[in-house]
Protein backbone atom coordinates (compact mmCIF):
# COMPACT_ATOMS: atom_id res chain seq x y z
CA UNK A 1 0.00 0.00 0.00
CA UNK A 2 2.90 2.36 0.75
CA UNK A 3 4.31 1.84 -2.75
CA UNK A 4 0.90 2.41 -4.30
CA UNK A 5 0.51 5.66 -2.36
CA UNK A 6 3.97 6.81 -3.46
CA UNK A 7 3.06 6.22 -7.11
CA UNK A 8 -0.32 7.89 -6.65
CA UNK A 9 1.31 10.94 -5.02
CA UNK A 10 3.82 11.33 -7.86
CA UNK A 11 1.01 11.30 -10.42
CA UNK A 12 -1.09 13.77 -8.43
CA UNK A 13 1.88 16.14 -8.14
CA UNK A 14 2.32 16.01 -11.92
CA UNK A 15 -1.38 16.77 -12.38
CA UNK A 16 -0.96 19.88 -10.22
CA UNK A 17 2.09 21.02 -12.22
CA UNK A 18 0.19 20.55 -15.48
CA UNK A 19 -2.79 22.49 -14.13
CA UNK A 20 -0.51 25.37 -13.13
CA UNK A 21 1.35 25.39 -16.45
CA UNK A 22 -1.44 24.66 -18.92
CA UNK A 23 -4.64 25.44 -17.07
CA UNK A 24 -5.31 28.91 -18.48
CA UNK A 25 -4.69 27.67 -22.04
CA UNK A 26 -7.38 25.00 -21.80
CA UNK A 27 -9.97 26.79 -19.68
CA UNK A 28 -10.15 29.62 -22.21
CA UNK A 29 -11.47 27.12 -24.75
CA UNK A 30 -14.61 26.11 -22.84
CA UNK A 31 -17.34 28.13 -21.12
CA UNK A 32 -19.60 26.72 -18.39
CA UNK A 33 -23.20 25.87 -19.19
CA UNK A 34 -25.75 28.14 -17.54
CA UNK A 35 -27.49 25.21 -15.82
CA UNK A 36 -25.94 22.14 -14.15
CA UNK A 37 -23.95 20.24 -15.03
CA UNK A 38 -21.78 23.20 -15.91
CA UNK A 39 -18.85 21.19 -17.30
CA UNK A 40 -20.16 17.72 -18.30
CA UNK A 41 -17.40 15.20 -18.91
CA UNK A 42 -18.39 14.65 -22.54
CA UNK A 43 -17.72 18.35 -23.19
CA UNK A 44 -14.20 18.37 -21.77
CA UNK A 45 -11.50 18.68 -24.45
CA UNK A 46 -10.11 15.27 -25.38
CA UNK A 47 -6.76 16.80 -26.32
CA UNK A 48 -6.32 18.20 -22.81
CA UNK A 49 -6.94 14.77 -21.26
CA UNK A 50 -4.54 13.06 -23.67
CA UNK A 51 -1.91 15.76 -23.13
CA UNK A 52 -2.08 15.34 -19.36
CA UNK A 53 -2.05 11.55 -19.65
CA UNK A 54 1.16 11.70 -21.68
CA UNK A 55 2.71 13.76 -18.88
CA UNK A 56 1.68 11.05 -16.43
CA UNK A 57 3.12 8.39 -18.72
CA UNK A 58 6.44 10.23 -18.78
CA UNK A 59 6.77 10.52 -14.99
CA UNK A 60 5.81 6.83 -14.78
CA UNK A 61 8.62 5.97 -17.24
CA UNK A 62 6.04 4.38 -19.51
CA UNK A 63 6.35 5.43 -23.14
CA UNK A 64 3.06 5.24 -25.03
CA UNK A 65 2.62 6.35 -28.62
CA UNK A 66 -0.03 8.93 -29.42
CA UNK A 67 -1.82 6.35 -31.58
CA UNK A 68 -1.98 3.76 -28.80
CA UNK A 69 -3.11 6.38 -26.30
CA UNK A 70 -5.85 7.57 -28.67
CA UNK A 71 -7.09 4.00 -29.24
CA UNK A 72 -7.11 3.36 -25.49
CA UNK A 73 -8.98 6.60 -24.85
CA UNK A 74 -11.56 5.70 -27.49
CA UNK A 75 -12.11 2.35 -25.75
CA UNK A 76 -12.27 4.10 -22.41
CA UNK A 77 -15.01 6.45 -23.61
CA UNK A 78 -16.94 3.60 -25.22
CA UNK A 79 -16.80 1.56 -21.96
CA UNK A 80 -14.87 -1.17 -23.76
CA UNK A 81 -12.28 -3.35 -21.96
CA UNK A 82 -8.81 -1.83 -21.66
CA UNK A 83 -6.09 -4.46 -21.28
CA UNK A 84 -3.38 -2.07 -20.08
CA UNK A 85 -4.54 -1.57 -16.49
CA UNK A 86 -1.84 0.95 -15.58
CA UNK A 87 -2.57 3.10 -18.64
CA UNK A 88 -6.28 2.86 -17.83
CA UNK A 89 -5.56 4.17 -14.32
CA UNK A 90 -3.49 7.07 -15.66
CA UNK A 91 -6.29 7.97 -18.08
CA UNK A 92 -8.72 8.07 -15.16
CA UNK A 93 -6.38 10.35 -13.21
CA UNK A 94 -5.94 12.57 -16.28
CA UNK A 95 -9.71 12.82 -16.78
CA UNK A 96 -10.14 13.80 -13.13
CA UNK A 97 -7.28 16.29 -13.39
CA UNK A 98 -8.93 18.09 -16.30
CA UNK A 99 -12.37 18.02 -14.65
CA UNK A 100 -10.87 19.43 -11.43
CA UNK A 101 -9.18 22.19 -13.42
CA UNK A 102 -12.49 23.37 -14.85
CA UNK A 103 -14.22 22.99 -11.50
CA UNK A 104 -11.61 25.17 -9.79
CA UNK A 105 -11.89 27.73 -12.57
CA UNK A 106 -15.64 27.98 -12.08
CA UNK A 107 -15.35 28.22 -8.29
CA UNK A 108 -12.78 30.99 -8.57
CA UNK A 109 -14.57 32.95 -11.29
CA UNK A 110 -18.19 32.46 -10.25
CA UNK A 111 -17.74 32.46 -6.48
CA UNK A 112 -19.41 29.03 -6.36
CA UNK A 113 -19.15 27.85 -2.75
CA UNK A 114 -19.98 24.42 -1.34
CA UNK A 115 -23.16 25.85 0.16
CA UNK A 116 -24.29 27.54 -3.05
CA UNK A 117 -27.48 25.61 -3.75
CA UNK A 118 -31.23 25.55 -3.15
CA UNK A 119 -31.83 25.63 0.59
CA UNK A 120 -34.82 24.52 2.60
CA UNK A 121 -35.72 25.07 6.24
CA UNK A 122 -32.84 25.53 8.71
CA UNK A 123 -30.32 25.77 5.89
CA UNK A 124 -30.70 22.11 4.89
CA UNK A 125 -30.50 21.30 1.20
CA UNK A 126 -34.00 20.76 -0.16
CA UNK A 127 -32.83 18.18 -2.68
CA UNK A 128 -30.83 14.98 -2.30
CA UNK A 129 -29.36 14.81 -5.77
CA UNK A 130 -26.33 12.55 -6.12
CA UNK A 131 -25.49 14.19 -9.45
CA UNK A 132 -22.55 16.57 -9.32
CA UNK A 133 -23.62 20.07 -10.46
CA UNK A 134 -20.20 20.64 -12.01
CA UNK A 135 -19.42 17.52 -14.07
CA UNK A 136 -22.71 15.60 -13.93
CA UNK A 137 -21.25 12.41 -12.44
CA UNK A 138 -22.76 10.50 -9.51
CA UNK A 139 -21.13 10.93 -6.11
CA UNK A 140 -19.82 7.84 -4.36
CA UNK A 141 -18.98 9.17 -0.89
CA UNK A 142 -20.14 11.74 1.64
CA UNK A 143 -18.31 13.69 4.33
CA UNK A 144 -19.33 15.18 7.68
CA UNK A 145 -17.55 18.48 8.22
CA UNK A 146 -16.54 20.24 11.42
CA UNK A 147 -17.66 21.77 13.63
CA UNK A 148 -21.32 20.70 13.52
CA UNK A 149 -21.31 17.76 11.10
CA UNK A 150 -22.81 19.28 7.98
CA UNK A 151 -23.07 16.56 5.35
CA UNK A 152 -21.71 16.98 1.84
CA UNK A 153 -21.60 14.66 -1.12
CA UNK A 154 -18.13 14.45 -2.67
CA UNK A 155 -17.55 14.00 -6.40
CA UNK A 156 -14.55 11.75 -7.01
CA UNK A 157 -14.18 13.09 -10.55
CA UNK A 158 -13.96 16.88 -10.16
CA UNK A 159 -13.66 17.13 -6.32
CA UNK A 160 -16.79 19.27 -5.96
CA UNK A 161 -18.87 18.98 -2.79
CA UNK A 162 -22.49 19.97 -2.18
CA UNK A 163 -24.75 20.06 0.84
CA UNK A 164 -27.32 17.30 1.40
CA UNK A 165 -29.60 16.08 4.19
CA UNK A 166 -27.78 15.08 7.37
CA UNK A 167 -29.44 11.66 7.71
CA UNK A 168 -30.65 8.94 5.40
CA UNK A 169 -29.45 7.04 2.38
CA UNK A 170 -27.76 9.28 -0.18
CA UNK A 171 -28.63 6.75 -2.88
CA UNK A 172 -32.43 6.69 -2.59
CA UNK A 173 -33.19 9.30 0.08
CA UNK A 174 -34.78 6.85 2.51
CA UNK A 175 -34.44 7.94 6.14
CA UNK A 176 -36.28 4.95 7.65
CA UNK A 177 -33.99 3.87 10.48
CA UNK A 178 -34.97 0.20 10.29
CA UNK A 179 -33.75 0.06 6.67
CA UNK A 180 -30.31 1.57 7.35
CA UNK A 181 -27.33 -0.41 8.61
CA UNK A 182 -23.96 1.06 9.53
CA UNK A 183 -20.77 -0.96 9.06
CA UNK A 184 -17.59 0.15 10.82
CA UNK A 185 -14.13 -1.24 11.47
CA UNK A 186 -11.55 -0.43 14.14
CA UNK A 187 -8.98 -0.50 11.34
CA UNK A 188 -10.61 2.56 9.74
CA UNK A 189 -11.72 4.99 12.48
CA UNK A 190 -13.99 7.80 11.33
CA UNK A 191 -15.22 5.87 8.28
CA UNK A 192 -18.48 3.97 7.94
CA UNK A 193 -20.49 2.26 5.25
CA UNK A 194 -24.20 3.04 5.17
CA UNK A 195 -26.08 0.04 3.77
CA UNK A 196 -29.67 0.69 2.73
CA UNK A 197 -32.09 -2.24 2.58
CA UNK A 198 -34.71 -0.03 0.93
CA UNK A 199 -32.70 0.27 -2.31
CA UNK A 200 -30.09 -2.47 -1.84
CA UNK A 201 -27.17 -0.07 -2.21
CA UNK A 202 -24.48 1.40 0.03
CA UNK A 203 -22.36 4.52 0.37
CA UNK A 204 -19.22 5.45 2.27
CA UNK A 205 -19.03 8.35 4.69
CA UNK A 206 -16.05 10.10 6.33
CA UNK A 207 -16.41 12.00 9.57
CA UNK A 208 -13.87 14.82 9.19
CA UNK A 209 -14.50 15.87 12.79
CA UNK A 210 -12.56 12.83 14.01
CA UNK A 211 -10.13 12.19 11.15
CA UNK A 212 -7.77 14.29 9.07
CA UNK A 213 -8.11 13.47 5.38
CA UNK A 214 -5.66 15.00 2.93
CA UNK A 215 -7.09 13.27 -0.14
CA UNK A 216 -10.57 11.76 -0.03
CA UNK A 217 -10.05 9.86 -3.27
CA UNK A 218 -7.00 8.09 -1.85
CA UNK A 219 -8.97 7.34 1.31
CA UNK A 220 -11.61 5.74 -0.89
CA UNK A 221 -8.93 3.42 -2.25
CA UNK A 222 -7.33 2.76 1.14
CA UNK A 223 -10.66 1.80 2.70
CA UNK A 224 -11.79 -0.57 -0.07
CA UNK A 225 -12.05 -3.46 2.44
CA UNK A 226 -15.14 -1.69 3.79
CA UNK A 227 -16.69 -1.79 0.32
CA UNK A 228 -16.04 -5.53 0.13
CA UNK A 229 -17.62 -5.99 3.56
CA UNK A 230 -20.73 -4.08 2.44
CA UNK A 231 -21.05 -6.14 -0.74
CA UNK A 232 -20.69 -9.35 1.29
CA UNK A 233 -23.32 -8.13 3.78
CA UNK A 234 -25.76 -7.32 0.98
CA UNK A 235 -25.20 -10.69 -0.69
CA UNK A 236 -25.69 -12.61 2.54
CA UNK A 237 -28.78 -10.58 3.42
CA UNK A 238 -30.24 -11.24 -0.02
CA UNK A 239 -29.70 -14.99 0.49
CA UNK A 240 -31.39 -14.88 3.89
CA UNK A 241 -34.33 -12.94 2.47
CA UNK A 242 -34.68 -15.52 -0.28
CA UNK A 243 -34.75 -18.36 2.23
CA UNK A 244 -37.37 -16.60 4.34
CA UNK A 245 -39.61 -16.21 1.29
Description:
With 245 residues, this protein is α+β, with helices and mostly antiparallel strands. It folds into two domains: 2-110, no CATH class; 121-244, FdhE-like fold, CATH 3.90.1670.10. Helices cover 43% and strands 13% of the residues. It has helices at residues 2-27, 46-59, 66-77, 85-110, 216-222, 224-244; strands spanning 141-145, 150-154, 161-163, 180-184, 191-196, 201-207. Strands 3-2-1-6-5-4 form a six-stranded mixed sheet, with helices on one face. A hairpin with a 6-residue loop joins strand 2 and strand 3. The longest helix has 26 residues, at 2-27. The termini are far apart.
Features:
alpha+beta; six-stranded mixed beta sheet; 245 residues; 43% helix; FdhE-like fold; 6 helices; single chain; 6 strands; globular; 2 domains
Please write out the topology.
Layout: H1 2-27, H2 46-59, H3 66-77, H4 85-110, E1 141-145, E2 150-154, E3 161-163, E4 180-184, E5 191-196, E6 201-207, H5 216-222, H6 224-244
Helix pairs in contact: 1-2, 1-4, 2-4
**For this structure, what is the CATH class of the largest domain?**
Alpha Beta
User: Distance between termini?
Assistant: 43 Å
Largest sheet: 6 strands, mixed
Q: What are the secondary-structure elements, in order, as H or E?
A: HHHHEEEEEEHH
| C-alpha Rg (nearest Å) | 19 Å
For the record, the CATH architecture of the largest domain stands as Alpha-Beta Complex
How many distinct domains?
A: 2
What is the CATH topology assignment of the largest domain? FdhE-like fold
What is the number of beta strands?
6
| Residue runs with pLDDT of under 50 for 5 or more positions | 112-127
Helix content percent band: 40-55%
Strand content: 5-15%
Counting helices, strands and paired strands, the structural category is: alpha+beta
- Within CATH, the superfamily of the largest domain carries the name FdhE-like domain
Strands ordered across the widest β-sheet:
3-2-1-6-5-4
The geometry reads as: globular
Average predicted confidence as pLDDT: 89
Number of helices: 6
Amino acid sequence: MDKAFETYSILKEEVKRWQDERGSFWTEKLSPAKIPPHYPLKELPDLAILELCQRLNQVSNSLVSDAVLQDTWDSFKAFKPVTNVELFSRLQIALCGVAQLFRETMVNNENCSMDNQVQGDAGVASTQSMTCPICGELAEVSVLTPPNGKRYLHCSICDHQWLVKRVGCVRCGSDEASKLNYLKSEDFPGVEIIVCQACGQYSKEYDLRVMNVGDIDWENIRTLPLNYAAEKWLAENAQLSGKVQ
